[in-house]
Design goal:
Largest sheet: none
Distance between the termini: 55 Å
Number of helices: 2
Number of domains: 1
Shape: rod-shaped
Amino acid sequence: MAEEGIYKEDGTTDFRNKPAVKHKTGTWKACPYILGNERCERLAFYGINTNLVNYLKFQLNQRNVTAMANAVVSFF
């Protein structure tokens, strides 16, 4: 009877498809990985965007405003 109380009762499973233990699930264990992933995504976006604006300005001879508008449109 005590063993039934340690598992989640909503059907949640762990990565081995076994019932999830209550005290090991629902915590903030994944938060650093999610925040790290978002940080890397932002760094990549702004790094590529800056290089694209410079390419459009100097190689394709676009004006600054036009190059920035084209770079922003190309990402969305």
